[in-house]
Amino acid sequence: MIAAERTTDDSSLVELRIGAVAHGGHCVARHEGRVVFVRHALPGELVRARLAPGAASDRFWRADAVEVIEPSLDRVEPRCALSGPGGCGGCDWQHASVGGARRLKADVVREQLVRLGRVDLAAVPGLADLAVEAVPGDTDGLAWRTRMRFGVDAEGRAGLRRHRSHDLVPVPHCPIAHPGAEALGVGTRPWRDVTALDVVSASSGERLVIAQPVLGGRVSPPPLAAEAAFAVRGESGLKRLRGRTWVTEEVAYRLPSGTVRRTFRVTGAGFWQVHPGAAEALTGAVLDGAEPAPGERALDLYSGVGLFTAGLALRVGAEGAVLGVESDAHAAADARRSLHDLPQAELLTGRVERVLSGLLDGPSPLRPDVVVLDPPRAGAGRAVMTALLRALPRVVVYVACDPASLARDVAIASGVGYRLASVRAFDLFPMTQHVECVAVLVPGDPS
Ligand SMILES: C[S@@+](CC[C@H](N)C(=O)[O-])C[C@H]1O[C@@H](n2cnc3c(N)ncnc32)[C@H](O)[C@@H]1O
């Protein structure tokens, strides 16, 4: 019998038969008629799990599998000793084979699109047997993370948070960190007067470490195990202590006329696709989905430093036009600098929800043929989706890091006459629950 208010003593250990995977990096089980979300388990397994503290009145409970009685065929030995029950929360599927984890992610994408997006599986080609695609260069799901954010504990050790906790687990080595980041040894040296650290390892080979000092603290550039620029985050922005406050990222665009290589400036810990194979894989999927033609007009919402803006500009050519909209002033400035040789590309600094209606419904409204949007995790939402679809674009390509937000926005789109024509999913964050989708929406009934 579970006490009304549970603690973490042995009375909270229960045997659970694990059901389907659920969005969020856990699987569903039932206990005493209640749903339990179980971490570190896999569908079909029988496990002994520790229930997290909670109340009898809670709608659902959470648990962590501490012993596997009947393992799944997809279970493997975690590749990181720090992962697992109570350990580092950075990874969710270390205990699953890479292929098994991709199948779980595909299940989540499908389930969210059907349940929240009200999508008919049979009406979207390829969705019923969706496969999450590995990006080029990824074989074992390790050594990919080019951006890391560490907290620093009271003893000066850099670490990552436990799942659903502010507690830090010291992480001297991280097997999913990119070798360029790992080589700096940020997790193996003590940090004084620092509360957090951003580590950036760019495709150009440049590396940058940004320290967040404690209030009033003074940080000097530490010796690192490899060469890196070093900056501190102050009240008035980034202060350079060694080298530059930005890195260069390199991308190859595969165009009908051949491959074009471009470089981007990314200031500080500003947004850039984290997996080294992600920028090219996503750009290819976006351009394949949008098929921008010479002379067309395109809108790139949440455009960051201009990764998709540049690809769209190259495809629509000098007779076409692309407008990128980005709220972060540093990212928009980086984009202007990186795209200065593409006069058909224009960058607007502003929040999409504030500027979109003015652009599409104003006195000289923009009539985009193509809209690309890549919103943060919360998605675009009703106001943005309905405003952009009122402009009747030929095609909308939606890049989503959260399948639940994508599904909600797909449901909004279908309410105003756009249907999901295709979806691809990419394993940009192996070992974690995260999955990136590229969905194509076109006018028409979802039949
Ligand atoms: C997922 S990133 C995508 C960036 C870019 N598409 C890329 O792939 O490099 C989302 C971007 O949206 C920006 N952003 C977040 N909220 C925004 C808003 N309300 N309006 C405009 N941009 C926003 C962030 O600063 C970030 O650069």
Model description:
This protein has 447 residues and is an alpha/beta fold. It folds into 3 domains: 10-75, OB fold (Dihydrolipoamide Acetyltransferase, E2P) (Beta Barrel); 147-201 and 207-243, no CATH class; 248-443, Vaccinia Virus protein VP39 (Rossmann fold, 3-Layer(aba) Sandwich). The protein is built from 8 helices and 23 strands. The chain has helices spanning 98-115, 179-182, 278-290, 307-316, 329-338, 352-361, 381-390, 403-415, and strands spanning 13-17, 21-22, 26-31, 34-39, 46-51, 60-70, 132-134, 147-152, 158-161, 168-170, 194-201, 207-213, 229-234, 237-242, 246-255, 258-267, 297-301, 321-326, 345-349, 370-373, 395-400, 418-427, 436-443. Strands 7-22-23-21-20-17-18-19 form an 8-stranded mixed beta sheet, with helices on both faces. Helix 6 packs parallel to helix 7. The radius of gyration is 23 Å and the shape is globular. Bound molecules: S-adenosylmethionine. S-adenosylmethionine binds next to helix 4, strand 18 and helix 6.
Topology record:
Blueprint: E1 13-17, E2 21-22, E3 26-31, E4 34-39, E5 46-51, E6 60-70, H1 98-115, E7 132-134, E8 147-152, E9 158-161, E10 168-170, H2 179-182, E11 194-201, E12 207-213, E13 229-234, E14 237-242, E15 246-255, E16 258-267, H3 278-290, E17 297-301, H4 307-316, E18 321-326, H5 329-338, E19 345-349, H6 352-361, E20 370-373, H7 381-390, E21 395-400, H8 403-415, E22 418-427, E23 436-443
Parallel strand pairs: 4-6, 7-22, 12-13, 17-18, 17-20, 18-19, 20-21
Antiparallel strand pairs: 1-5, 2-3, 3-4, 5-6, 8-9, 8-11, 9-10, 11-12, 13-14, 15-16, 21-23, 22-23
Helix pairs in contact: 1-8, 3-4, 6-7, 7-8
The chain binds S-adenosylmethionine.
The site of S-adenosylmethionine has 19 residues, from helix 4, strand 18 and helix 6.
